[in-house]
Specification:
alpha+beta; 60s Ribosomal Protein L30, Chain: A; Phosphoribosyl-aminoimidazole Synthetase, Chain A, domain 2; 2 domains; 4-stranded mixed beta sheet; about 25% strand; globular; binds adenosine-5'-diphosphate; binds magnesium ion
């Protein structure tokens, strides 16, 4: 199949957003941006044998995840995902139906979130499959949940459960072989292959006065470290409060490593004032969105980010606080 036929076959027949003026088919896409919102743009690349392996991931799984990880970035800003673009470097061994299946995997999520595929690029490669997805979303002006918004005495929270994706990967790679046959290993594997971005929680957070958010792609510890650095604070978490699946500790003695450093959970972690935490928790409960308190934000104890960058960041943060107060 040539590139033209491929593009034709993956061009959506319907669009969700009437703001799309020109979708696939011209040199670039055109859409009319709304007033009063900020556009959010993010991009992520997945490479065969680095981010997935073909012996355990189907083309649908690959497509699904390539879009999911980007939607998760939009969720972490408190935004609504709207459009996506797909750049493919395809090895010649890939068949037409496999490529279409990959788009089917993306389409599964796109339908769920009413997202439109508005463009992309296709090249061939002699080696591994590379798929790059760009997502465009929006958030009401001034309402994005930035990493720099954590303040001393905030509550630290995380959504869903953590460590399950790392457990799933370990099972897929045969590094973990559970003795207990009652454990539903397919559940953990699915958490790795098909993460569910937390758009609803992100949207809820954006309706609060001040919520700092990050999505968990590199592991809870790493994401919280990013929040702490960006906000010039220290973050303390209580290991005993980490929300994990009840079977996780049965899978491996090192399950805490998965929870703290495993990554790819695509849950959200963030901080919010004590008063607003009670409201956020209540609202999440009402909507059956799992969320748990795991720690506190403290004044920065020691300066692990000395120098100009640190000072500039802190200056910017205090300016922000003065304006929003
Ligand atoms: P150009 O040469 O102007 O870059 P292309 O022939 O690469 O145009 O693409 C034609 C149209 O098809 C463009 O609208 C582009 O965004 C879209 N497109 C190309 N490849 C893909 C792809 N893999 N997925 C989705 N859309 C694509
Ligand atoms: Mg092109």
């Amino acid at each position: 199949m040539d590139e033209f036929d491929l593009i034709h076959s993956i061009t959506p027949r319907t669009i969700h957003h009437s703001s799309v003026d020109v979708g696939i088919g011209d040199d670039a896409a055109l859409y009319t941006a709304k007033h009063g919102v900020q556009e959010i743009v993010c991009v992520d690349t997945m490479v065969e044998d680095v981010h997935f392996k073909l012996h355990y991931s189907s083309p649908e799984d690959i497509g699904y995840k390539a879009l999911a990880v980007n939607i998760s970035d939009i969720a972490a800003m408190g935004g609504i995902p709207k459009f996506y673009l797909v750049s493919l470097a395809v090895p010649s061994k890939w068949t037409e139906s496999e490529i279409k299946a990959m788009y089917e995997g993306m389409n599964e999520l796109a339908k769920l979130y009413h997202m439109d595929l508005i463009g992309g690029d296709t090249v061939s490669t002699s080696d591994k499959l590379v798929v790059t997805v760009t997502v465009i979303g929006e958030v009401e002006k001034g309402r994005a949940c930035l990493r720099s918004l954590a303040r001393p005495n905030d509550i630290v929270f995380v959504t869903g459960e953590i460590g399950s994706s790392a457990a799933g990967l370990s099972l897929l790679l045969d590094e973990t072989n559970p003795q207990n046959s009652a454990i539903d290993t397919a559940y953990f594997i699915n958490r790795h292959k098909r993460p569910q971005p937390r758009v609803s929680v992100g949207r809820l957070c954006s309706s609060f006065k001040r919520v700092a958010l990050n999505d968990i792609s590199d592991g809870l510890a790493s994401e919280l470290n990013e929040l702490a650095e960006a906000s010039c604070v220290s973050i303390e978490i209580d290991e005993s409060m980490l929300p994990v699946h009840s079977d996780l500790p049965k899978l491996h003695p090192n399950w805490k490593e998965w929870a703290l450093f495993g990554g790819e959970d695509f849950e959200l972690t963030g901080t919010v004032s004590k008063e607003e935490w009670e409201v956020l928790k209540q609202k999440c409960e009402t909507c059956q969105l799992p969320i748990a308190k795991i720690g506190h934000v403290r004044e920065k104890t020691e300066s692990n980010a000395v120098g100009n960058r640190y000072e500039m960041l802190c200056e910017e943060i205090s300016r922000h606080d003065n304006i929003s107060d």
